UniProtKB/TrEMBL annotation:
Compartments where found: Cytoplasm
Coiled-coil ranges from the UniProt annotation: none
Protein name from the UniProt record: Dihydroorotate dehydrogenase
Record keyword Transferase present: no
CDD domains: DHOD_1B_like
Listed pathway(s): Pyrimidine metabolism; UMP biosynthesis via de novo pathway
Main location (coarse class): cytoplasm
Native organism: Bifidobacterium bombi DSM 19703
Cofactor note (record): Binds 1 FMN per subunit.
Active site annotation, chain numbering: 157
Enzyme Commission no: 1.3.-.-
Pfam families assigned: DHO_dh (PF01180)
Length: 331
C-alpha cells in the first residue's frame, strides 16, 4: 500500500470516530475521480458487491459514505433462512459459497438496514432476490418509493417460474421479467448477470432492450469442492458459487465482450477485485465502475483500500478519469 493510501485510510478511521452527521461533508473532499452509472454520480468508481458487505461488520472499519456505492445483500419478499451448513469452502485463489440468500426480508430491510445506511450518507444499491417472478415484483414494488438510490436485480437465483433454473440463463424469460419490473419503478435498475451461460451477450441485450438502465457482471460461477476423507461434497448444498481472484480473467472477459456488443450501456465490473490495479483493468475493459466482493470477507477494509488505490492510479490517467466523470467509458 502506497504512503498516500495509508494516510487516507488513517483519515477514514479518524472520520469514523466522529459524529455520523459530519461524515458526509468530510468525505466529499477526499475523492478526486467520480464516475456516473445510469445517470447516478458516484463519488468514486468503487462499490461493495452484494452479500459481502454487512453494515455491522464493516461500518466500524470505514466511513461507508466514502465509497462509490454500498450494494446490499439480496433482499427477498419474506425472510429467507438460507441453506444448511457447511455453506462455504476454500478453493485455490477463491472460495465457494452456498449461503442461499439468507436475509430478513424486504419489510425489515425498509425499516432497518436501508434507513441506517442512508443516515450514514451511503449511496445505496439494493440487491433484489427472488425465487419466482412474483417475488421480484413484490420486492421491487415495495422499494419503488424507498430511499434506495439504485436497484440491482440478481437474476442468478433458482427460479420456480423457470423450472428451478435461474432466470438469467434464459434471455426470453429474463426480458419478460425485466419488462415487468420496469413498469413498477422509476429507480435506476441494474441487472446483475449470471456467468453460467454460453453467450453472455444474449441475456445482456435482452435485459437492456427490456428496460435495464445498467448491467453488473458477474455473479458467481457454479462450482464445488470434495472432502477426500469422506469422498463427499464439502458444501451441504453440493454446489455453490465460485468467487475471488480465480474468477478475475473470466469476469474481465465477460465485461469486455458485453462492452463490445453494447457500447452505450453502463457496466459495473465484478469478480476477483482486491486491488486498485485490478479495478483499473475493468475500467480499461470498458466498465464505468466496479464492485469488490470476496476480498472483503478476509479484509473488511478491502473496498475502501481499493478505492484509495484507484484514486492514486487515476491521477496519472487523466483521460480515463475524464471519461468516467463524463459518464463515458474507455471503450
Ligand atoms: C458470501 C457471498 C454472498 C453473496 N451473496 C450475493 C447476493 O446476495 N446477491 C448477489 O447478487 N450476489 C451475491 N454474491 C456474489 C457477489 O456479489 C459477486 O458477484 C461475486 O462474489 C464475484 O465477485 P468477487 O470475486 O469479488 O467476490 C455473493 C458472494 C459471496 C462470496
Amino acid at each position: 500500500m502506497g504512503k498516500a493510501v495509508k494516510i487516507r485510510m488513517e483519515k477514514t478511521k479518524m472520520t469514523r470516530s466522529k459524529e455520523h452527521t459530519s461524515m458526509n461533508e468530510l468525505d466529499l473532499h477526499k475523492w478526486r475521480y467520480q464516475t456516473v452509472v445510469a445517470g447516478v454520480r458516484w463519488k468514486n468508481p468503487v462499490g461493495t458487491a452484494s452479500g459481502t458487505f454487512q453494515l455491522d461488520a464493516c461500518g466500524d472499519y470505514y466511513d461507508v459514505s466514502g465509497l462509490g456505492a454500498i450494494c446490499t445483500k439480496g433482499v427477498s419478499p419474506v425472510p429467507w433462512e438460507g441453506n444448511p451448513g457447511p455453506r462455504t469452502a476454500e478453493s485455490p485463489a477463491g472460495m465457494v459459497n452456498a449461503v442461499g440468500l439468507q436475509n430478513p426480508g424486504v419489510d425489515h430491510y425498509l425499516v432497518d438496514e436501508l434507513p441506517r445506511l442512508k443516515r450514514l450518507g451511503a449511496m445505496v444499491i439494493t440487491n433484489v432476490a427472488g425465487h419466482s417472478d412474483d417475488d421480484y415484483a413484490q420486492v421491487v414494488g415495495k422499494l419503488a418509493d424507498s430511499d434506495a438510490d439504485m436497484l440491482e436485480i440478481n437474476v442468478s437465483c433458482p427460479n420456480v417460474s423457470h423450472g428451478g433454473m435461474s432466470v438469467g440463463t434464459d434471455p426470453v424469460a429474463l426480458g419478460r421479467l425485466i419488462a415487468r419490473l420496469r413498469k413498477l419503478t422509476d429507480k435506476p435498475m441494474i441487472v446483475k448477470l449470471t456467468p453460467n451461460v454460453t453467450d453472455i451477450v444474449a441475456p445482456a441485450r435482452a435485459a437492456v432492450e427490456s428496460g435495464a438502465d445498467a448491467l453488473s457482471l458477474i455473479n458467481t460461477l457454479v462450482g464445488m469442492r470434495i472432502d477426500i476423507v469422506t469422498g463427499e461434497p464439502i458444501i451441504a448444498n453440493t454446489t455453490g458459487g465460485v468467487s475471488g481472484p480465480a474468477i478475475l480473467p473470466i469476469a474481465l472477459g465477460f465485461v469486455w465482450r458485453v462492452r463490445q456488443a453494447l457500447p452505450q450501456v453502463p457496466i459495473i465490473g465484478i469478480g476477483g477485485i482486491d486491488s486498485g490495479e485490478k479495478a483499473l483493468e475493468y475500467l480499461y475493459a470498458g466498465a464505468n465502475a466496479v464492485e469488490v466482493g470476496a476480498a472483503a470477507l478476509s479484509d473488511p477494509t478491502a473496498p475502501m483500500r481499493v478505492a484509495c488505490e484507484l484514486d492514486e492510479l487515476l491521477e496519472t490517467r487523466p483521460e480515463l478519469a475524464r471519461c468516467l466523470a463524463e459518464g463515458r467509458t474507455w471503450r
